[in-house]
């Protein structure tokens, strides 16, 4: 419900006449380097999208709305995020949305390796000045380089919709930093002809602080696109505000209904495979999978170095321990297991995987028979520090991973062309 001091939400349609500037559209300048001056690497627009993608990884929203999605570039960045179950792009220009129907569709790889939970990508035509009940309670809203395109009536109505009606847990807003413009020698006016304004850092903070106070959010400020050395006093090229909702009585469900004025332009439902295993079973399965990959890699590496070494019997009985913190470097395990303590608890008492005496490592024996899948289970205790640095590069090595997939966890039995499980 809204605070008594807050102005009432505009009724649907009241701000429509002023919303013509709301779509960012194809004319948006996404590479400020065309003005001359600082060169950004990666390009600034990619830095913005990557920053938002990193925030999605941090907050793990299930449902996200991107206002002013235009050509869907941010949607492309966010589609791989596995926490998302609903990704929605909203823009005022229906023709622009209709032209990008293809980018929201599943790829062939999405069918080969289905997601672990339902996932839908949708495109809606509508104005952020209007409330639509379907998007109330979404977890996260992004407005990347959008507010500077808004006419005053739309900008005034936008907070009531996004912060008052939708009430997401997190809102991310980025906009140009006007103070940075002096570094562009071939520049005058605004960075884009469609911009209605460009704010200084103080102006942006004043607006954001007012919105946060009015709707019970905390807000922090950050910069994207660092300038040359000696220009730190100007700030970054793009400024960003991250709003986090406070837990207050304000969050009680409102009985006010505004209808569904937005028009659905396109929607894509992705394949997924439901996992019926318990959390402990999932952890155990991921551990066994990565043990197999590590041991195969070690065996193959030692065979290449062995040359004339004839002591096969001794080598075949060698035992190795894999520290739990090394296993936790793998993305597949991190998806189902939050930390080393949870991993240790799941493995204690397992008859499929043995822990070292101090419970800090998994104990395995070398298996050089590629046809024997049970070799990894014949484990015996060895000191937990016997890895000899063998697995120190687990986060960085993408080249030696064999992508054999289990059908009950969404992995196929065929090698996949690409999967970044070594993170």
Give a brief outline of the structure.
This protein is of the alpha/beta class and 423 residues long.
What does this structure look like?
By secondary structure, this protein is of the alpha/beta class. The chain contains eleven helices and eleven strands. The strands form two sheets. It has an eight-stranded mixed beta sheet with strand order 6-7-5-4-1-2-3-8, sandwiched between helices. It has a three-stranded antiparallel beta sheet with strand order 9-11-10. The longest helix is centred in the last third of the chain and has 28 residues, at 279-306. The two termini are 43 Å apart.
Strand segment count = 11
Using the alpha-carbon principal axes, give the shape: globular
Which sequence of strands runs across the widest sheet?
6-7-5-4-1-2-3-8
Percent range for helical residues?
25-40%
Strand content: 15-25%
- The average pLDDT is 77
**In terms of per-residue confidence, which ranges show pLDDT below 50 for 5 or more consecutive residues?**
1-20, 24-29, 370-423
Q: Total helix count?
A: 11
Spatial separation of the terminal alpha carbons: 43 Å
| Topology order in helix (H) and strand (E) letters | HEHEHHEEHEHEEEHHEHHHEE
Structural class: alpha/beta
Radius of gyration: 26 Å
Mind summarizing the main beta sheet? 8 strands, mixed
């Amino acid at each position: 419900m809204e605070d008594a001091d807050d102005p009432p939400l505009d009724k649907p349609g009241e701000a429509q006449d002023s919303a013509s500037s709301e779509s960012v559209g194809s004319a948006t300048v996404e590479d400020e380097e065309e003005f001359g001056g600082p060169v950004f690497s990666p390009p600034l627009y990619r830095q913005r999208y990557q920053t938002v993608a990193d925030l999605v990884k941090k907050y793990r929203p299930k449902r996200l709305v991107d206002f002013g999605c235009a050509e869907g570039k941010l949607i492309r960045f966010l589609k791989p995020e596995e926490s998302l179950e609903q990704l929605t792009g909203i823009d005022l220009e229906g023709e622009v949305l209709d032209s990008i129907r293809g980018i929201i569709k599943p790829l062939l790889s999405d069918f080969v390796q289905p997601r672990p939970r339902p996932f839908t990508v949708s495109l809606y035509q509508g104005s952020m000045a209007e409330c639509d009940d379907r998007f109330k309670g979404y977890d996260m809203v992004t407005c990347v380089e959008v507010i500077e395109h808004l006419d005053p009536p739309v900008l005034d109505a936008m907070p009531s919709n996004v912060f008052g009606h939708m009430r997401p847990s997190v809102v991310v807003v980025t906009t140009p930093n006007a103070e940075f413009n002096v570094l562009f020698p071939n520049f005058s006016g605004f960075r884009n002809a469609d911009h209605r304004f460009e704010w200084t850092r103080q102006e942006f903070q004043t607006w954001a602080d007012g919105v946060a106070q009015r709707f019970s959010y905390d807000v922090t400020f950050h910069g994207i696109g660092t300038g040359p050395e000696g220009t730190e006093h100007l700030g970054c090229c793009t400024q960003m505000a991250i709003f986090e909702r406070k837990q207050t009585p304000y969050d009680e469900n409102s009985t006010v209904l505004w209808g569904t004025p937005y028009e659905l332009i396109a929607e894509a439902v992705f394949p997924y495979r439901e996992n019926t295993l318990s959390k402990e079973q999932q952890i155990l399965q991921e551990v066994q999978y990565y043990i197999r990959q590590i041991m195969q890699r070690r065996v193959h590496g030692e065979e290449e170095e062995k040359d004339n070494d004839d002591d096969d019997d001794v080598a075949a009985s060698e035992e190795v321990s894999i520290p739990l913190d090394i296993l936790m470097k793998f993305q597949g395990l991190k998806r189902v297991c939050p930390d080393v303590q949870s991993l240790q608890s799941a493995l204690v008492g397992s008859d499929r995987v043995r822990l070292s005496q101090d419970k800090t490592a998994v104990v395995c024996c070398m298996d050089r028979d590629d046809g024997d899948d049970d070799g990894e289970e014949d484990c015996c205790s060895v000191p937990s520090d016997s890895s000899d640095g063998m697995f120190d590069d687990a986060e960085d090595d993408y080249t030696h991973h064999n992508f054999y997939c289990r059908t009950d966890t969404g992995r196929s039995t065929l090698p996949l062309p690409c999967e970044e499980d070594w993170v």
